[in-house]
Amino acid sequence: MLSGRRLDLLDPSPLDIEIADIAHGLARVARWNGQTKGSHAFSVAQHSLLVERLLTEHNPKLARESRLMALLHDAPEYVVGDLISPFKAAVGIDYKDFERRLLSAIHLRFGLPAQTPAILLQMIKKADQRAAYFEATQLAGFEPSEAKRYFGSPGAGRTPRLVPLPPGDAQAEFLNQFRRLAA
């Protein structure tokens, strides 16, 4: 990692995880394999911020710890990239287990429970699907009916305006939100 840490992907230690590495990596991993509108790719860092924001808008009294878990929900992608689910299944290893172990180490590094509670996991998944709908329709060229078929209806609430940011800006926004939630 740029921090100088060496992360064993098969046996990740919380001691080898730095938020600066996570923010740097996520800001440079493109959602939708970079097939989005705009001068820059829409990054996993921006997606993570969007998921946390959508979750909080629907659950304004959510604890900061829960919001932090939402912000970090895709944190393993800072080292493994953003792979689509069908490809993960085709890889041949238990990719989900691999990601869970890495996410557990990330959670422990920042004082969070190793596993996201099931009810919160469901809430994050719903916000994640809403985020995917907005990303698909605003950035990836999907028609609303097509996005609804894949990701479900976004439901009621504000429609965020998504603008892909340069990696440095996405990294800074991710780090700032992490610091606010971890304080």
Q: How would you describe this protein?
A:
With 183 residues, the chain is mostly helical. 56% of the residues lie in helices and 0% in strands. α2 (44-58) packs antiparallel against α3 and α2 (44-58) packs across α7 (118-138). The longest helix has 21 residues, at 118-138. It is globular, with a radius of gyration of 16 Å. The model has no long low-confidence stretch (mean pLDDT 93).
Layout of SSEs?
Elements: H1 19-27, H2 44-58, H3 64-71, H4 77-80, H5 85-91, H6 95-109, H7 118-138, H8 144-151, H9 167-182
Describe the main β-sheet briefly: none
H-E string: HHHHHHHHH
Q: What is the number of helical segments per DSSP (H or I, 4+ residues)?
A: 9
Query: Low-confidence parts lasting 5 or more residues at pLDDT below 50?
Result: none
Strand content: under 5%
Radius of gyration: 16 Å
Shape: globular
